[in-house]
Design brief:
alpha+beta; 4-stranded antiparallel beta sheet
Length: 201
């Protein structure tokens, strides 16, 4: 067995609480910043920036991520930023943005829940700005609440609901242009050009 000097043992024991605290900070930050957002937007933005830096983003990357969030917020009335890369929608659902250097979005607050942290959770319809479920991810779960789609080009979607529930895609005039098969169904190469609204059922 390795024999450790008393000073070395103290250093190792002291390092443990700091490592745990750093890990907890990433998980707790979204809840704290979300609660602060309504009362102090400036403090909330500082919290989101700190969260981004805790994930290893440099100041330029953190600023770029926030600019993308701001772009979505400007086009989505009633939406709120609740984490560095997460926006909640007023009628139900959320938008997750990819982090710089990553091709798939992930929920930073759901690190302890694999069912929510990656992929499209059961009972949701998920839409992606890129093909093959890449890019920014829109997660919808509230029936009969069409959400505005602001993407162009080719993306993708997943209907991970029951077999009797269908996603509905609407054109600019709010007419249903196409209805998906029941869950589970998907399209890895879906055109967003004509789609202006999406409802999970």
């Amino acid at each position: 067995m390795e024999r450790l000097h008393v000073g070395t043992m103290k250093k190792r024991l002291l390092a443990v609480p700091f490592a745990v605290a750093a890990a907890l900070a990433v998980c707790v930050a979204p809840a704290a910043t979300a609660a602060t957002a309504a009362t102090d937007p400036g403090a909330a933005r500082a919290g989101f920036s700190a969260q981004a830096r805790s994930l290893g983003l440099d100041s330029s990357q953190a600023k770029n991520l926030q600019n993308r969030v701001d772009g979505y917020l400007a086009k989505t009335p009633g939406a709120s930023q609740v984490a560095a890369n997460r926006i909640t929608l007023s009628g139900g659902g959320e938008l997750l943005l990819t982090l710089p250097g990553e091709e798939r979005a992930r929920d930073l607050a759901a690190a302890g829940n694999p069912g929510l942290s990656a992929g499209c959770p059961y009972t949701y319809v998920c839409a992606y700005s890129g093909e093959d479920f890449t890019g920014d991810e829109l997660r919808l779960f509230t029936c009969n609440y069409p959400v505005n789609i602001t993407w162009a080009g080719t993306g993708s979607w997943i209907n991970n609901q029951r077999s009797t529930l269908y996603a509905r895609f609407y054109d600019r005039n709010h007419n249903v242009g196409w209805t998906s098969p029941g869950g589970y169904s998907e399209d890895r190469h879906a055109p967003w050009g004509w789609v202006y609204w999406l409802s999970p059922c």
